[in-house]
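Lab notebook: predicted structure, single chain.

Context: the supervisor wants predicted structures on file for every construct in the current expression panel, including those that have not yet been purified. This is the next one on the list. No modifications to the sequence; it matches the entry in the shared construct table.
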Amino acid sequence: MFGHDSQPTRIYSYGARPPADPAQLAAVEEQMRLAHRYRNVLVEHELARRALVDAALAEMCPDLAGVEAQIPAAERQVEVLVGDLTSEQGRQRKKVRPANLVEPLAAARVSLRTLRDGRKRLRVRLFAAPEWVDRQAEIAAAATAAKKELRAAAVASGLFWGSYLQVEQSLGGIRSGAPPRFERWDGDGHSAVQIQGGMSVPALFRGSSTLLQVDPVPPEAWEPGGRRLRKTVARVRIGSTAGRAPVWAEFPIVLHRPMPADAQVKWAHAIRRRIGTHCEWRVQFVLSRSSGWAHEDRALTGAVGVDVGWRMRPDGSLRVAYWLGDDGAEGELTLDAGWLAAKRKVDDLRSIRDDNLNDAKARLAAWLMPAEGPNASAPNLCPAPAWLLEATATLASWRSAGRLAAVAIRWRRERDEMQQPAERRRVSDTTVRSDTTEAFDALEAWRRRDKHLLEYEANLRDQLQRRRADLYRVFAATMRRRYRAIYVESLDLRTFHELPDPEEPASDPALKEHVRDACLSTLLGAIRETGAAVAVPAPHTTADCASCGSRERLDGAALSHRCSRCSDVWDQDRNAARNLLRAVSTTSAVAVT
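Prediction complete. Output recorded below exactly as produced.
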């Protein structure tokens, strides 16, 4: 990367606490806000660049402009028809497909697809035209110059160079694919520092660097019973003084595992993740190692086929993988019924919060309604503080509980101010309606209840995700210690998250309901981390009978299937694992690093 030979890297992540010094904490939070703002600025810059490209293409080909003008109207028509069909299905509480709604929607989708295909063909032809080369160079040069100005502005605002490099790296593929989207600030933050050329782990603990330092721990910290000795402090540079001296942020961390002495530190990241109304902090070190990251306990022989997917078991558990080794051993990886029940509880909590939010909005809107009546200007009957009327002007369209909670918090502050002596008040409202207290108490009661449910929901979700990740890591480690090669099917996980169109027939809930529960990306990531994963491009591994090779039509919700040719009854996932092992000898397998 950046002209240097890349080496295998690993991320060592440690739990941390925020800086104890309020000034340091404020500086870290400011860096995180500036980095977030810079990201959205780059998104705006990319959208502007794409607009210039579209304008240049339209100028080169008037037909393209005509097609472009028709697409928004076609998209709106599809949205309206989808909304009508979804509303009808919601009213009847089932996935009905009335012809008077489905047929116009299908025709509108065909029309929209035709327009988009025509636009794509025109753009491909224009991109291949010789005259586009010069226009493209002009746009690219202007975009590069503008991006440099944006970076200079970010630096002038106080953004440290390590953080803006991390933002730019995270948006490395922004020029391809779908248009990027803006992200709102939700408290999650990221501050980074890059160690150019790398720094050895011993140097990291010596404290000689002006970018990154970690206080050493005693050798006995890694012995049994030495957990208390693993607490230390990581100092991450977040800026410079006028004299170019380092500005440090000190994070108390726990080194739950040692870093390899022969590794090089490339990056350090201070990360804040919001969970409910509190934040979790971590300090991560990106380490590279010329010798690689092969585990010492990795098996030297053996192969195993692992078929990943999700399928409900009769006992209420969710199978996410089935494995079959060349030594005859086999088994399955499942999320138990208790875990699934807890996951459904998370969904229920979210639904309860949504209902409570709608009820609170309706109550507040009903209380604010008299402001439009004839008594709105009567003395001592001011319906609400002026700021409240202005802040809730679009209350009916709010979908964020946090937005309404912010109103409740401000209202509480304003009421506290009103209770101060007149000479100490900062608010301008001097009269309130007689039922203001009742309305405020109702909104405050909702806020407190919603905060409790939010904490419950967020913490339960976090616990379940951690349990699942730990289960997957243990499974991957077990496979690594038993088999030298772990064969998994090449999968495009994006296809599993595609939702069916409203006009399509209702699919089996077992096929789509648990896609997020299984989280196959986490499982495959744990398998790849072992260094033993091998991707096998083997289509139809589940449908092809491993005994006779017949390609079968399967019921995706069923566990077993009887072959129509040889009459063998086999577990669908076990059959896929057998086919994976067999495919290794007949197809090109690609090692996954």
